[in-house]
Write a structure and sequence with these properties.
383 residues, alpha/beta, Four Helix Bundle (Hemerythrin (Met), subunit A), Rossmann fold, 2 domains, 6-stranded mixed sheet, 6 strands, 44% helix, binds guanosine-5'-diphosphate
């Protein structure tokens, strides 16, 4: 007989999956539509007006929320570098496909709303009007549900980019690259405002990071990258990100070689990657340094040798960098994202929905993509 007093094995509570994006958007749209306050001399007039307003307000709210989802991702992927990052991480064309489907959904919703508005204006009794609204709400819901996968894709892309630093378009960009564990992050911390995590195991840096340094004539973006082993076909996502930074964002590359063996990689392996990049990016200035000179100084090298521990060689590195990076004017102004176009679907003669209503912020957004402090600077590619 089973022992009924024995404690039960703990049940693992599963987190409920997040509801699809359409749920939040439709909730807000229908809620706002339920608050319309129609004017009219007769009850029939007010009923008609109410139906029209429900159509207008619910469709306008849905469209505004679709734009709230697309706008920030569009702005965040304006630069070549970010486009390439997203294409490599989410697949070529994934972003464009999602944006296109959302644009089409918006057009279909506008058409649907125009038809429903006309039917509501012709409606004579509450039953007819109720049917118009029910049918409209049903179709509106299915149009929004159809783009759930696209909204989910945009949210994933938005979250991915939120975790990456914003690169200022046009600012000189030094990408610090090399094998894992060779001392890239330590050097980035020495050269710039960035404070990356430094550890004596490989792949501590999983995504690019950025710090800034004053070049005297300009502000330099110093990009720390995850280590790259140069096995293109088998590159992991972090390595791919580093390669994309070199390919799309770099004004110059600072290639770090660790000759001491403490990184776990041989000098030959590191030289092979350097040779590969020189071949792949013949136009790109590549400054090569050997790190950890406090542990080992190689007599037979004409390369810059430096130590992030003692600071040896850093002044010489700065002079070299200044000679390689183009002198330009001041940093460009930070561009402010333009407000999204207003949704123009105003019922004729309606004074209950003001023209402003469609452009005003919703009472509560289902998810506003995060903005970093410092404002909505455009991400950009190299100068
Ligand atoms: P990354 O993976 O290339 O970014 O390398 P890290 O900057 O994280 O450094 C890897 C290890 O090497 C850490 O334990 C660092 O403390 C050490 N290291 C980095 N630069 C130097 C250096 O110039 N001298 C010495 N002695 N150790 C260093």
């Amino acid at each position: 007989m089973p022992n009924r007093t024995a404690p039960r094995a703990p049940r693992h509570r599963r987190e409920a999956p997040a509801p699809p994006p359409s749920v939040g958007i439709l909730d807000i749209a229908f809620h706002r539509a339920s608050l319309v306050t129609p004017h009219g001399r007769t009850k029939a007039e007010r009923d008609r007006r109410r139906a029209v307003l429900k159509v207008v307000r619910s469709s306008a709210t849905v469209i505004r929320h679709l734009r709230l989802e697309t706008g920030p991702v569009r702005a965040a992927t304006a630069g070549d570098f970010e486009k390439a990052l997203v294409a490599r991480r989410f697949g070529t064309g994934a972003l464009d496909r999602a944006l296109l489907r959302l644009r089409r959904a918006e057009e279909r919703i506008r058409g649907l709303a125009r038809d429903a508005e006309r039917s509501a204006q012709r409606g004579n009794d509450p039953t007819d009007l109720g049917e118009v609204i029910r049918t409209f709400y049903g179709r509106l819901s299915s149009f929004v549900r159809e783009v759930d996968p696209d909204l989910a894709t945009l949210r994933r892309i938005g979250a991915y980019l939120d975790e990456r630093p914003r690169l200022h378009e046009g600012a000189p960009t030094l990408v610090v690259a090399g094998f894992p564990n060779v001392g890239k992050s330590s050097l980035v911390a020495r050269l710039s405002t960035a404070r990356p995590k430094v550890a004596d195991y490989p792949f501590t840096t999983l995504a690019i990071g950025v710090g800034h340094a004053d070049l005297g004539f300009d502000r330099l973006q110093v990009v720390d990258t995850p280590g790259v082993l140069g096995r293109s076909a088998r590159a992991n996502p972090a390595e791919t990100e580093a390669e994309t930074a070199v390919e799309r964002a770099a004004t110059a590359v600072l290639f770090v070689i660790d000759p001491t063996g403490t990184s776990g990689y041989t000098v030959e392996e590191q030289e092979q990657l350097l040779a590969k990049w020189r071949e792949e990016f013949p136009q790109l200035p590549i400054v090569v340094v050997e790190t950890k000179s406090d542990l080992l100084r190689r007599p037979a090298t004409d390369r810059l040798q430096l130590s992030s521990v003692t600071g040896e060689g850093l002044d010489a590195l700065w002079s070299r960098l200044r000679s390689v990076l183009p002198a330009r004017g001041p940093m460009p102004e930070v561009e402010v994202e333009p407000p999204s176009e207003e949704f123009a679907l105003e019922p004729e003669g309606s004074d209950e929905v003001s023209p402003d209503e469609r452009s005003e912020e919703p009472d509560e957004a289902p998810r506003r993509p995060r903005r970093r402090p410092g404002g909505p600077a455009r991400r950009g590619r190299r100068a």
